[in-house]
Structures are given as structure tokens and as C-alpha cells.
Specification:
Number of helices: 19
Low-confidence stretches: 1-9, 386-407
CATH architecture of the largest domain: 3-Layer(bba) Sandwich
Shape: globular
Number of domains: 4
Number of strands: 26
Helix content: 25-40%
CATH superfamily of the largest domain: FAD/NAD(P)-binding domain
Distance between the termini: 71 Å
Largest sheet: 8 strands, mixed
Length: 552
């Protein structure tokens, strides 16, 4: 493996893939690309370990860390286990908690990580899997041949300029958004015009057992505060406020004084910090909610914060970075191996990443709108006023059914005061789903179990099966996706589901569909197909993909 010293003597570099940035997104992308046999070089501006905020992880990141081969090192690093969150939010001023185990038995905890160490673990993991990592190398520009990226220009720690030629560039440059700025792709989110100011404290009091490792979030008049305990005895503490008001206050009084003034307006957070000392200078992060218009192009792809970043209320940054790094690696491998598939695979990458991003965004918007405990410019400006934009199905998918359970989905409905139209929509869809489930249960309990075979299924409006790229083992492969009104970007489905959907025409019974699909099967095979098709249609009926089952 090449060392930094070896590379500095040869400032002109070549690689199959250059990854800009060695944070979670860059490390994940580089690791997965190296596994596919590509020569990968990471150019990282800083020398690790380096400071970074964003210490609170979600359980959704655990299986990704496992896939990267970094989970054991994370588990052995001594980070505090995070079992949930404690909040002052919604309709009251008393703290309340929720726990990951309520929605995830497999991953009942995540971690509160010290980011300098956590990010170094990921970067060292990439090195151990064959990635060349050059720290202290700042990429200053992406080199284009026409509209295709073919390399990067950089400056090393000694100020020596150089170039790296490559077949593909992964922009994981974080919130500096190198390509986003260069290509003018960046679009600010008009809803989350916030600013964060944060610092680290020692001597902070813990939450009462069993919540001592939880992230603590407290809403107050001018925004909300976070408090995250860390295993090194420090506590990450920050305030999220309106961007314009925050900038004015910081310019007048300085970041440290501004943060202390915000903390003093709180009740519970201030009490936790009563005997604590601020042992770092306050840092300001401004205007951080944005997306890029296009996440890929000829010879390049954007991942992590270089592509988009959403308000940090749900601690989603590391998860989105890791997920997008893995997806970006799959896209690059596909584009290099099968150039004709690059365009379609890129569209799927963008759909998958923005779908995950938008689920966090919609839930954050709903949380902001549900906090009626505080009345101020900050909260009034962040109400969801046009609740008519939420159709019942869309509301249900965005808030509950369209994402892996993270624990926030039910809390916002139970603890907050969501727009009434939204709540009514959720209830309407859930009541419909419950009614469909009960109807199927009654049908199954009938001695004539084969009644389902005589039912005639009818698809909901807008349902169709499309053949397009789907994520395979480290690359995109041709597959099938199911498009619905609520999920127009499509959800990957099995060949069986695709075949069943194609056969449903509103006239054939389930038995007719089975006969048509299994005409070449023997008796045993036909019986297995009959069971599989019946179960598939039942699931599609409960989900609403099948709008109706007509029985005699």
C-alpha cells in the first residue's frame, strides 16, 4: 500500500476512482468500491482525527457499519450506547422519552460517538480494505473534459499543487459542496432557514436512569436545544435558531455569549449544565438544509452532505452519508462496467437518496409544526399551513409506512399537535388498512379457505410494474419496481410480484391468474404457486396496491 510520503514524491496521481473527502460518505464509498476491485484514492483535506459535529447515530446505521466491516471497531471503541431520545416538545413542558426497542427488536440501540474517533475508524477501515488515503490533500477543482469529470486538482499539506487523473469522481466533500457550487446545483430549503451554534461542556449532569445516554432535545421560545453525552466526559450542546436572528445576535455578542444566552432561556437543559464548564469555543453552522438539483453526471456523483443535508433534528446526517456512500459505490461500479446503464442507474440512485432524505424532511417539518408549546416568530414561521398538500395516502407513507421504523413516527402523533387534517388522514388510512386485514382474517377462517381463489382482484389507480435498475450486490442490476400513486419512484419487487401485477386486469380471478402462470407446472408445483400467489395478493390488498377483491 502506498504511504503519504511515497505519494508526495509523485504529485501526479492516477486511479480508477478519486473520492473527495474521507468522512463517513467518502469512507463508505471508497470501501465498497475497493471491494469491487477498483483502484481508489481518497483525498482528504484534514489530517485525522479532526473535529466534527453530529455525534448521535441512528440504529439504521448499524447494518451499514456491519456491511462495511467497521462495526466491530465501533463496538470496541467505548462509545456510549444510545437507547432512545428524551424530549421537551409538543403540547407540554415535561420531558418524555421513547426508545428504539419499541420499533426495532434487532437494533435496540445506536451510539453516541466522538466524531474524531468514529470518522477515523471508518477511514482506517477503508485503508485496511485496499484504499489509498491521502490526508492533508485539499481538492480545489474537478477537471472536466466537456461535461465529463476526468480528474481533480489538489494541494497537499506542503502547499504543492498536483492533479489526479481518474475514470470517476465521487464528491463526498461535505457541506463545502465542491461540485454543487461549481455546477450551481445547490438549492436551499425554504422551510428550514436555521442556524446552529454549538460547543462542548464538561461536568454536565446526566438525565435520570434509564435515559442517561439519550440525546436530550428541548424546545424553547426561539428554537430548540440538543445535549448529547459522550464517553470522554464531554457533552455536545447546541442551539438551533432562526438563521437571520442568530446571525444578528452572534455578530453583536459573539458565538459563545449567544449560545450561553440561548441556554439560559431553557429550563431543563440549563439545569443539566448548572455546574458544567464550556471547554471549547462555540462553532456556528449556517443555512444547512439544501439539496442538489442533480446528484450525478458523466464521470461524477455526489454523496453525503455534498448532495444534500436536512435539519439535524433526527440525527440523520451520518445515516444519510453512510447510505449514500454505499449507493454511490454501486452506481460507480455500474457506470464503469456497463456505461449504457449509467443514466438509468443514476436516476435510481438519486431517487433512492432523495426518498430517504425527504422522509426525514417531512417528519422534521411535521415535528416543527406540531410544537405548539412555544409561541414565537421561530415557531410560527415553521408551521405547516398548507396541510391540504397531504393526501391521506401520502401522509401515511411519509410518516409511518414509507420508511424503516425509527421511533419518531408515532411520537409525533402522540406527543405533538399535528395539523388536524394530517391526523385525520392518518387515521383514515390506518382504519382502512385495519378493515382490510380483518376482512382477510374472516375469509381465512372460513372452512372454504379457497374463497380467495375465486376473488377477482382490481389494481389501485396508477399501479404499474416497470423494469429498471435495482440495487444488487455492490452494483445496480436490471430488475422490477412497483410504481404506485404514493410511491411514484417505485419500490423494488420480486419477479413473482411483478408477474402477479401484470396478470391483474379486473376480470381474472386469483385462480385464473394461478392457472395462467402455472400451466407448465406439475400438481405439487401448481399447489405451491397457488399458495404464493394467494399470499401475494393478500399482502397487496392490505397495502392498498390491490384496491379491491370482488367475491361472489
Amino acid at each position: 500500500m502506498n504511504t503519504d510520503a511515497d505519494q508526495d514524491s509523485n504529485i501526479d496521481l492516477t486511479a480508477d476512482v478519486v473520492v473527495i473527502g474521507g468522512g463517513p460518505a467518502g469512507s463508505a464509498a471508497a470501501t465498497m468500491l475497493s471491494r469491487k476491485g477498483w483502484q481508489v484514492t481518497v483525498l482528504e483535506r484534514e489530517t485525522f482525527p479532526r473535529d466534527h459535529v453530529g455525534e448521535s447515530l441512528l440504529p439504521a446505521s448499524i447494518p451499514i457499519l456491519e456491511e462495511l466491516g467497521a462495526l466491530t471497531a465501533v463496538e470496541n471503541a467505548g462509545f456510549l450506547k444510545k437507547y432512545g431520545a428524551t424530549m421537551v416538545w409538543g403540547s407540554g413542558d415535561a420531558p418524555w422519552s421513547w426508545y428504539f426497542k419499541e420499533t426495532s427488536h434487532r437494533y435496540p440501540h445506536s451510539y453516541q460517538v466522538w466524531r474524531p474517533k468514529f470518522d477515523q475508524i471508518l477511514l482506517e477501515n477503508a485503508k485496511s480494505q485496499g484504499v489509498t488515503v491521502l490526508e492533508g490533500h485539499q481538492v480545489t477543482e474537478v477537471i472536466f473534459d466537456g461535461d465529463e469529470a476526468i480528474g481533480v486538482e489538489f494541494t497537499n499539506a506542503e502547499g504543492v499543487a498536483g492533479e489526479a487523473q481518474c475514470r470517476f469522481v465521487v464528491d463526498a466533500s461535505g457541506q463545502s459542496t465542491l461540485l454543487g457550487r461549481h455546477l450551481e446545483l445547490k438549492q436551499w430549503d425554504p422551510f428550514f432557514q436555521n442556524l446552529a451554534v454549538y460547543a462542548y461542556f464538561t461536568g454536565a449532569q446526566s438525565l435520570p436512569d434509564p435515559d442517561q445516554n439519550n440525546i436530550f432535545i428541548e424546545s424553547y421560545r426561539h428554537g430548540w436545544l440538543w445535549s448529547i453525552p459522550l464517553n470522554n466526559g464531554r457533552t455536545s450542546v447546541g442551539a438551533v435558531v432562526d438563521s437571520k436572528i442568530g446571525q444578528e445576535g452572534i455578530q453583536q455578542n459573539g458565538a459563545n455569549a449567544f449560545l450561553e444566552a440561548q441556554l439560559a432561556q431553557s429550563s431543563h437543559t440549563w439545569a443539566l449544565l448548572e455546574n458544567a464548564d464550556m471547554d471549547s469555543e462555540a462553532t456556528v453552522v449556517m443555512d444547512w438544509s439544501y439539496t442538489a438539483d442533480k446528484l450525478f453526471g458523466p464521470g461524477y456523483i455526489l454523496a453525503g452532505d455534498a448532495a444534500c443535508f436536512v435539519d439535524p433534528l433526527f440525527s440523520s446526517g451520518v445515516h444519510l452519508a453512510l447510505m449514500s456512500g454505499v449507493l454511490a459505490a454501486a452506481y460507480v461500479t455500474t457506470a464503469l462496467n456497463e456505461p449504457a446503464m449509467a443514466g438509468d442507474a443514476g436516476e435510481v440512485y438519486q431517487e433512492l437518496y432523495l426518498k430517504e432524505y425527504n422522509q426525514f424532511r417531512e417528519m422534521a417539518r411535521l415535528f416543527y409544526s406540531s410544537n405548539l408549546n412555544a409561541e414565537s416568530y421561530f415557531w410560527e414561521a415553521r408551521r405547516i399551513t398548507n396541510s391540504a398538500e397531504y393526501s391521506p395516502r401520502h401522509s401515511f407513507i411519509q410518516a409511518v409506512a414509507g420508511q424503516p421504523p425509527r421511533g419518531y413516527e408515532r411520537v409525533v402523533l402522540n406527543r405533538g399537535q399535528a395539523p388536524e387534517e394530517f391526523v385525520e388522514s392518518i387515521r383514515a388510512v390506518e382504519n382502512e388498512r385495519q378493515s382490510r386485514t380483518q376482512w382477510l382474517a374472516a375469509l381465512a377462517s372460513d372452512p372454504q379457505r379457497n374463497q380467495i381463489l375465486h376473488a377477482v382482484p382490481r389494481l389501485a389507480e396508477g399501479v404499474q410494474v416497470e423494469r429498471k435498475p435495482v440495487l444488487g450486490e455492490g452494483e445496480f442490476v436490471h430488475g422490477h419496481v412497483l410504481n404506485t400513486v404514493s410511491q411514484p419512484e417505485g419500490t423494488p419487487c420480486s419477479p413473482l410480484v411483478a408477474a402477479v401485477i401484470v396478470e391483474i386486469d379486473g376480470q381474472k380471478s386469483v385462480s385464473d391468474i394461478v392457472d395462467g402462470m402455472g400451466q407448465h407446472l406439475d400438481q405439487a408445483g401448481h399447489a405451491q404457486l397457488e399458495e404464493a400467489v394467494s399470499r401475494t395478493i393478500e399482502i397487496l390488498y392490505v397495502d392498498g396496491t390491490v384496491a379491491g377483491l370482488v367475491t361472489e
